[in-house]
Amino acid sequence: MFVLLFVAVAAGWFLGRGGRVLTMSSLWQSSDTLPSQYYRGLNFLLDGSQDGAIDAFTKALEVNSETFDTHIALGNVLRRRGEVERAIRIHQNLLARPSLPTSQLHLAHLELARDYISAGLLDRAERLLLDLVAESGHHQRIARRHLLEIYEAQSDWSAAKRVAGEILPRRSLLRSNGPDPNEVGQPIPLLLAHYCCEQAAIALHSGDLTEARTQLDQALKYDRSCTRATLMSGELELKAGNPARAVKTLQLLKEQAPDFVSESADLLRQALIQLNHRSALRSYLMDCYVAKASTPLLIALAEEIRAVEGSEQAKDFLRKHLVDKPSLGGLALLMALHGTNEAGEDEPLQIEIVNRLVEANSTYQCNHCGFRGQHLHWYCPGCKHWGTVRDLGAIGDVTRE
Ligand SMILES: [Zn+2]
Fold first, then answer.
1. What's the mean pLDDT in 265-285?
2. Residues of the chain by 3-state class (helix, strand, coil), percent to 5
3. How remote is the CA of residue 14 from the centroid of ligand 1, in Å?
4. Total-model pTM
5. Closest C-alpha to 165, from 185, 136, 135, 195
6. Using CA atoms in the order 354, 357, 361, 364, what is the torsion angle rounded to 10 degrees?
7. In this predicted structure, what is the pLDDT of residue 367?
8. What pLDDT shows up at residue 398?
9. What pLDDT shows up at residue 130?
10. How large is the C-alpha radius of gyration of the chain?
């Protein structure tokens, strides 16, 4: 990479001297005019000191519209290497040259904002990006995407919704399910639905059910397939004292997102107990399991059977189904259901080992970056994508669940 960088800087320097065609003879003839910083850079490079080489080349390379791309490339390489302060210096140096064309100044502006985001200086990045949105038609869209990144990091959902709304094409308000083929990143309606869910979660937490309902309805308008909004709507109806509506809402998941049915089991249980109709839970979960067998559903069913009919029935159920659908999670539950009274003295150790294996094999995984964890995250901590984390057991990955 640094050899390439060296060539790029050398080429940039020659171009910067007047845009002459780079030939061996011109290289030779020009060598007596090379600045001392250039030789110092070469020395640093030969001595293996990449940091010194970069500093020397940066000083040697005059800033003008021809060498601009080389400076930008150098700054970006430094940022990717985690040397954000030096990237900032390079990009600030470009911005200090008002003689550069406006389009290049705007690009330097954008790169500096990216440096600030990498450095965690979000307020500074936000100011730069807001200026870019106001001044640069060309970089407006990408600047708004970076603003979303900042508002997500700050949990400023109102600001995120405002900016996402500016990106959303007008007609998409009516037809929210078709992603824009020109758009980079996740579809804006999907993001907006999650921002509404975040606001609904805050409202639910503070007991403002009216606001929560408004936000969840809005989320489903943006993205009809938003599983999170459906789950939260079920929770809301339960809190609002409408168990029948909670059941109706949560059972939409059977068609909408079969992989998430097990996530609704606890809420469904609470609602059906209130309706004195608990037996419906087992038959509903069984219907879903027959439609698509998965470990989380198997465990939800076994736990329901244990609670209603007792451990023996739950063990029988697990023994029967684990043969068809073997899984560590199911085995751990089966072993836990065996009381120590009837077990050999090694049994507690076996339960401990299996439980540790289950813990070590994290249950949830992001289908975008591969992040793994024990909990369902709607916002992946690894790649900052929304709604990409799945239960490995639910998607049938028997080898890893
Ligand atoms: Zn991820």
1. 96
2. 70, 0, 30
3. 43
4. 0.80
5. 195
6. 40
7. 92
8. 44
9. 97
10. 29
Judge whether 229 and 220 are in contact, CB under 8 Å.
Answer: yes
Using alpha carbons only, give the angle 388, 391, 393 rounded to the nearest 5 degrees.
145
Q: How far is the CA of 226 from the centre of ligand 1 (A)?
A: 18
* Gap from CA of 254 to ligand 1 centroid (Å): 25
CA 80 to ligand 1 centroid distance, Å? 19
Report the C-alpha gap between 104 and 101 in whole angstroms: 5
Among residues 1, 15, 91, 89, the alpha carbon closest in space to that of 45 is found at: 1
Residue with tokens 């921002």: 195
* Amino acid at residue number 121: L
CB 252 within 8 A of CB 224: no
CA dist 232 and 243 (Å) reads 13
Q: Is 121 helix (H, G, I), strand (E, B) or coil?
A: coil
Tell me which amino acid residue 283 is. S
What SS3 class is residue 395? coil
CATH class (in words) of the domain with range 188-292: mainly alpha
State the pLDDT confidence band at 8, using cuts at 50, 70 and 90.
Answer: low
10 Å CB burial of residue 30 (0-12, 13-18, 19+) is middle
What's the pLDDT score for residue 124?
A: 97
Token output for 141 = 């869209």
Kindly list the domain boundaries of the chain, sorted by start residue: 188-292, 294-360, 362-401
- Cα distances (angstroms) measured from residue 58 to each of 10, 53, 73, 191: 11, 8, 11, 40
Distance (angstroms) between ligand 1 centre and the Cα of 383 equals 4
Own/partner long-range contacts of 135-141 (Cβ < 8 Å, ≥24 apart): 135/106, 136/106, 136/109, 138/103, 138/106, 139/106, 139/107, 139/109, 139/110, 141/167
CA of 19 relative to ligand 1 center, distance in Å: 45
pLDDT of residue 173 exceeding 80, the answer is no
Pair of tokens at residue 309: 């009919």
Query: What residue ranges in 18-148 does DSSP mark as E strands?
Result: none
pLDDT category at 363 given cuts 50, 70, 90 is confident
